[in-house]
Design a protein that fits this description.
It contains 16 helices and 20 strands. It is α/β, with parallel strands linked by helices. The longest helix is centred in the first third of the chain and has 20 residues. The site of nicotinamide-adenine-dinucleotide (NAD) has 30 residues, from helix 8, strand 10 and helix 9.
């Protein structure tokens, strides 16, 4: 299996390499084999990318928003036309099952390009009546923005960050996760093919040090990071010290609350989506599943039955429902949390082992895992695992479960399953989380804001909120009379 790109980086409309950069192997998580080798960006490459973006941005910002939008919408069409090929690339990069990447990854990036390409034409400033004189506001771009991606949704992340940035008239330098460097390069080529002027979307590869170099560069006006809370603290601290704009999309340990009156099959479907999709590597996952006493045992039995039927295996087989984890380190981390859960006294109700899969012995697989009898103070109840490990808790009353659900440093997401709609809205209003669901879980359409409360982040991606985060407001007072000067 090979997926060697033409070169490591994409700058000013062309592939660029600098072999002096540290070698960065791209590993197929299903087998552990190296499918490509690229280079981490040197200082020279970082400078080239920032300079290309700085050069290209002013002319782009002067275009009419609908003209910028037209290019984004053209790129969305190309993404859709190449969906199958891009989904395969994403599966090779991430190990995620092709049945997911075919529907969720390039398609979600395309949605972002289409949405922001359309929305920006009607995203205007305000007219403010001052009784004779007036004022107006202009929504102006920030300039050069940096996007730093995580490895679980690589092309989606590149699309979610670049589309609102470009639509608003900014230029972007994007650094994918070192684990998944390939699909952002494909997106960059597609932008060029769609007519995006050179220099507006640049991709540089590398580890955290390259992210740091980009985020601290004096030309850069904004940094948008998707990653873990510890990385977010570092990058937000850096951005703050340099007075740069910042959006942080970070981790979570989100609650999913299932009341007695919920539709059992839907609640189980929601809980499985909230824990096993993308092999559990989703920031918004509802990893703390609180089930009310009256439904708890039936929920656990039927959940186990449905979980046993999950097909784990070859990610490129369209029947496979769960692929491996991203890499060896993540594999070790998830397995160690499973051990911790057992030692802490939680009941390993299902899974927990490495499945034996012929031909995939070198892959980073783990079974979908369910812990029951979990208590709120256990580490598996408090720390983000980022793998297919569900913790099931019992609860009695609404007040009790809301307090327990909120007892976390995180606040990315939350979900409620119930047929009692007043209760659904009441509980959601009390939960300290930015992205919530009633009677479903983990859907993130581009039309609605996405982001976290508390330690889970700052700012929002998607929706018109993202255009606000990629722009700054200029207020203009217009005098229609004489200047009333006391001098
Ligand atoms: P990570 O924090 O290890 O890395 C994220 C990115 O930051 C990578 O590109 C990495 O190279 C870069 N980076 C690392 N150190 C840096 C530094 N000092 N300066 C600048 N950049 C630096 O996260 P990960 O392991 O790639 O992703 C998993 C995490 O991301 C989980 O915590 C998950 O919850 C979170 N996540 C959040 C969202 C969201 O939208 N809220 C989405 C996906 C993933």
């Amino acid at each position: 299996m090979k997926a060697q790109p033409k070169a490591s980086h994409y700058i000013n409309g062309s592939f660029v390499d600098d072999e002096l950069g540290r070698a960065l192997p791209v590993i197929y998580p299903a087998t552990g084999e190296t499918i490509a080798t690229i280079h981490s960006a040197t200082e020279n490459v970082v400078e080239l990318a920032i300079e290309a973006a700085r050069e290209a941005q002013p002319a782009w910002a002067r275009l009419k928003p609908v003209e910028r939008g037209r290019i984004l919408r053209r790129a969305a069409d190309i993404l859709r036309a190449r969906n199958d090929e891009l989904a395969r690339l994403e599966t090779l990069d991430t190990g995620k099952a092709i049945q997911e990447t075919l529907v969720a990854d390039p398609a979600s990036a395309a949605d972002a390009l289409e949405f922001f390409g359309g929305a920006v034409g009607s995203y205007n400033g305000d007219y403010i009546d001052l009784g004779g004189s007036f004022a107006y506001t202009r929504r102006e771009p920030l300039g050069v923005c940096v996007g730093i991606g995580a490895w679980n949704y690589p092309i989606q992340g590149a699309g979610w960050k670049s589309a609102p940035a470009l639509a608003m008239g900014n230029a972007m330098v994007f650094k994918p996760s070192e684990n998944t460097p390939l699909s952002a390069l494909a997106l960059a080529e597609i932008y060029t093919e769609a007519g995006l002027p050179d220099g507006l979307f640049n991709v540089v590869q590398g580890y955290g040090d390259v992210g740091h170099a980009l985020a601290s560069h004096p030309v850069v006006a904004k940094v948008s990071l998707t990653g873990s809370v510890p990385t977010g603290r570092k990058v937000l601290g850096l951005a703050g010290s340099l007075m740069k704009h910042a959006t942080m999309e970070l981790g979570g340990k989100s609650p999913l609350i299932i009341f007695d009156d919920a539709d059992l099959e839907n609640a189980i479907g929601g809980a499985m989506l909230a824990n096993f999709y993308s092999t559990g590597q989703v920031c918004s996952n509802g990893t703390r599943v609180f089930v009310q006493d009256g439904l708890h045992d039936r929920f656990l039995d039927r959940l186990t039955e449905r979980t046993k039927a999950i097909r784990i295996g070859d990610p490129l087989d369209p029947d496979t429902q769960m692929g491996p984890l991203i890499n060896k380190a993540q594999h070790e981390k998830v397995l160690s949390y499973i051990e911790i859960g057992k030692q802490e006294g939680a009941t390993l109700h299902h899974g927990g082992a490495v499945p034996a899969l012929q031909g995939f012995e070198g892959g980073f697989y783990v079974e979908p895992t369910i812990f029951a009898n979990v208590t709120d103070t256990m580490r598996i109840a408090r720390e983000e695992i980022f793998g297919p490990v569900m913790a099931v808790f019992r609860f009695d009353s609404e007040d009790e479960v809301v307090a327990r659900a909120n007892d976390t440093e995180f606040g990315l997401s939350a979900g409620v399953f119930t047929r009692d709609l007043p209760r659904a809205h009441r509980v959601i209003a009390d939960l300290q989380a930015g992205s919530c669901w009633i009677n479903n879980y983990n859907l993130a359409p581009v039309e609605i804001p996405f982001g976290g409360y508390k330690q889970s982040g700052i700012g929002r991606e998607n929706s018109l909120a993202a255009l606000a985060h990629y722009s700054q407001i200029k207020s203009v007072y217009v005098e229609t009379g004489d200047v009333a000067s006391p001098y």
